[in-house]
Amino acid sequence: MNIKSLLLGSAAALIAVSGARAADAVVVAEPEPAEYVKICDVYGAGYFYIPGTETCLRIGGYVRYDIGVGDHGTNDGVNNVPDHMGDGEHDTYYKQARFTLKTWTGQETELGTLKTYTETRFNFGNNTGDYTDPDGAGPLTGGTNWQGHNKDVSLNFAWIQLGGLRVGKDESAFDTFIGYAGNVIQDTIVPYGGFDTNVIQYYFDAGNGFSAVVSLEEGYGDYSIDSYVPHVVGGVKWTQGWGAITGVVSYDSNYEEVAGKVRLDVNVNDALSLWVMGGYGSDDNLGDGPLVGAGGRGMYKQWGGNWAVWGGGTYKFNEKTSFNAQVSYDDWKNLGIAANVAYDVVPGFTVTAEVDYQNVGSDDINKGWFGADKKSNIGGILRFQRSF
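RE: above sequence
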């Protein structure tokens, strides 16, 4: 046997042994593929599928910091706080930091889209008001809330909606359906209706610009219903490319009063949008003054007297900067003016500087809003907000 034959034989033997061992080898299973979060684009940007479900979830919110100065009669100032060393009283800043957490969910069902929305707010800061020594004269706030403190956590929204039916915590359709009073911070110098309430609500959208709503509401605080009879709100809207016409009517079951508002929105061009809104309400059982009956203000007719008007608009100088203004006036001759400039520093971060004014039209200072203790009130607020 030569060396060449020996090598060939050895190689054949090795191949045979290797093949036998390969037949007996343990096969390692491939790992299960990881289930990564899937993007859901059915309801807009920011949604993702909750793993293992057909439910889409979005998480968002904002962090905000406000600094206010001036008179508390514009809801901007903190007035007459006691000096720590006993040297009289001073005005100081109104400051508030807020963290707001929002969640949205959506899922398609055989009965329509099932949606939820929640909004929870956490606040730290002080409260606007007049903290003059209680032995003095005037409508005073009193207490120590001019000092910074953790405030109550508020649940502003927590509703479920299937198709057009919505139940849960919301803001009144008397305000949300017709729209808020402009893009200003202090939009309620002349108030236009109460907000917080639980609702059973049905919303109808015809798909051609026409929509309608009916809402059974509980109210809040002193405006909460006092029987099984709910407050009721109804509204209709017609929306087109040029703007919208909206009307809402309400029934205050506590005082058996009716109030309504109509609104016109006009998109003049890509830069300028204008709006005007008028309200009228009965006050036979509310009283015609702050010290009569319910003080002249109910869940829905919160303006002074029977009627009120609001108007304003937004002008966009460019993609980063806009100017917003609102003017309001009511039957008690209360005048409100608010104007601001909002600047988007970077996407998601906006700085807004606003000036506010309230003139209490009556010699009865109690007919003003925000606890004003003089006829002419001016203030301002600077807001920093990071939205996500």
